[in-house]
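Working notes for the structural subgroup meeting. M.R. asked for a predicted model of this chain before we commit to crystallization trials. I am recording the input and output together here so anyone reviewing the notebook later can reproduce the run.

Input as submitted:
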Amino acid sequence: MRSFLIFVGLAGWLMAETPDPAQWEYRRKVAVHSPGVLHLVRIGPEILAHAQPSLADVRVMWQDAALPYAIETLSGSVEEQRFAARLTDKVKTAEGALRFTLQAPEATRHSRVRIETAERGFRRKVKLESSDDGKAWDTVVDDGYVMVHEQDGSVWEALEVDYPASTRPYLRVTIADWPDVKTLGGAALLLRKVRAPLRQTVKEFTPAIEKGENAKESLLRMDFGEKPAPWSSVRVETAAKAFHRPARVSVSDDGKLWRTACAGILFRIGKSETVTLDCGEQRVRFARLHIYNRDDEPLAVTKVEFEALVRMVRFIPREEGEHSLWYGNPKAKPVSYDLAIVLDRNAPIERIVLIPGPERRYGDFLGEIKPWTEKNPVVLYTAVFAAAALIAAFTLRAMKKIAAKEQKGS
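Returned structure, recorded in C-alpha cell form:
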C-alpha cells in the first residue's frame, strides 16, 4: 500500500526556509482557493527537463517563504504467488508437440504458467486449455509463445504465458515443435496481480527505421537534445496485428559510448500485448531501439514514446492566493520536514489538483532591467552638474595660476 506525507497542525504552517530567488531559475504560478486542504501538482515533462533528477530543488513558495511538501511517485506494483502444481501426462504428440497437464492445489486461483528448460535459441507456439475434471477441456489461450533468444551478448527469456485468472484445477499445456520431452525441466502455476503505474509521455519520436548490424535487426535512433528530461520506459506504437520480437534499448551521453539500458519482448497476440520496455530512470541525450526480427518482416514502428512515472507534489497551503513552484537550481540541497504524519493515500481527505501556470524564468519576474541612469535621472543630473562645477572650478583655478606666472615672467 502506498502512502504519502501530509503535514498537519503546527508543522503544516512552519516555514522551512527563505530561499534566495536568484538561485532558482524557473517557476510556475499555482492559484490556491481552498487553504487548509491537501493540494497536488503534477511534475510535468517541462519541469523534469529543468529540475534536478531527484527533484531536490523543487520548492513550494508562498510569498517569500517555502512551504512543507512531499513528493509521491505513482509507480504501481507487481505481485506473484507461486504454487506447487502436480505435473502429469507428459507426452510428445504425433504432430511433434509437447503436451502435459498441471493440477493446481484445491481452490487455488492462478493466471500464469511458467516452464523451465535448458534449451536455447527457440520460439514455439503454446496452447492452453482448462478443465474442472481433467476430461472436458476449454481453450483459454490459442496463440501464446515461449522463447529463448540470444544476440549481441544478451539473452531474452520469455517462458511464461498469461491467461484469464481461473480456479479450475486442471491446466493442459501444448507447446509446438518440441524436440525432446526430457528437456522440459518443470512447470509451475502462478497468480500474478499487476497494478499498472501511472506514466506520462516525456518525448515522442517518429524515427526512420534503419538496418542494424545484421539484416534481421531494425534500428531506431533518437536524440533528446542538450537538456534531456528523465524517462524510465519506452513505448512502441505499431499497426501490426500480431508480432513477437526481442528488443533492446541502448543509451549514450555522447553518441559514441553506448550501454544497454534494458531489454525485453515486444508482442501483440490476440487480446494480449506488451509494447513497453522498462529501463529504469535514464537522463541521456541519445537512445537507440534495437528490434530483432529473426526471420519475420521488419516491424513497422509508427512512433516511439519515452515515458516517465508520474510524480506529484503534495502540500497544504495556509493562505488563499497565488503560490508558486520553484525549480532549476543545480546546487539546491534536498529538504526534510519534521512532525509529518503518514496517512493512507486512500483516506477520505479532500484533495485539489492544481494546474500550474506557464513556465517563467527568474528574470521575467523582475521585469525589464533598465540602466541605472534611467532608473535614477535626478541623481544622475545632480552628479553631472556637480562634476561640471568641480571641473569648472579646477579649470578656473588653473587658469589663474597660469596668468600669475605669466605676469611674474614679464
